[in-house]
Amino acid sequence: MPQAKTVDEYILNARSRQGILMVLHDLLIATELSGTIKWGAPCYTINGKNVVGLGVFKEHVAIWFFQGALLKDEAKVLINAQNDKTKALRQWRFVTADDIDAEMLIAYVQEAIFNEKQNKRVKINRNKKLIIPPELEEAFNQDNHLKLSFQEFTPGKQREFADYIAHAKQEKTRKSRLQKIIPMINNNIGLNDKYRNC
């Protein structure tokens, strides 16, 4: 899908998923939320803080709640798309516009808005032990400057780099990811810096 600059443009580019997106968008902007584009997809905010986002996937459209783990989810509609990685995000999937229960959806969105106004956040364990994957360790052994540059990052950013490589299932992917992050480390650019302050 082409990169959109506005939510309307994103919906127009979605082709077969336009109906679902229009219904979801209309429901979301009927609340206090403001719609914008972040990371190439619709994101709905309050006071500049991310509350929900929309995304088109091959089999469905998802609305995700940035602090969804805090929602009561009495209807059990929310899923964690990446159990081993995602702590706060939860998504609700729709295949057709008929799958959308407007009243229930608005109740979930209103709860998410309330939680955001209360500044409720999922607590993330930031003291997790740093485990350097073998591929990165080998790169440090061959390049002391790379190792010193890596050590200048905060422990959290070091973990992001290490996990990025370690979570790849195939050796080929781990090596490819290593080649991607070496210039970032040498230029003092964190793996997720472009997403911060969004």
Summing up helix and strand content along with how strands pair, one would put the structural category as alpha+beta
Question: Main beta sheet: strand number and arrangement?
Answer: 5 strands, antiparallel
Calculate Rg over CA atoms.
19 Å
Low-confidence stretches: none
Task: Please tally the β strands and state the result.
Answer: 5
In terms of DSSP E residues, the strand content is: 5-15%
Q: Helicity level, as a percent range? A: 40-55%
Query: Order of strands across the widest beta sheet?
Result: 1-2-3-4-5
Order of helices and strands: HHEEEEEHHHHH
In quaternary terms, these chains amount to single chain
Q: Ends: how far apart?
A: 21 Å
CATH class identity of the largest domain: Alpha Beta
Overall 3D shape: elongated
CATH topology term of the largest domain: Aspartate Aminotransferase, domain 1
How would you state the average pLDDT, rounded? Answer: 90
Number of H/I helices? 7
The CATH architecture of the largest domain is: Alpha-Beta Complex
Q: What's the number of structural domains?
A: 2
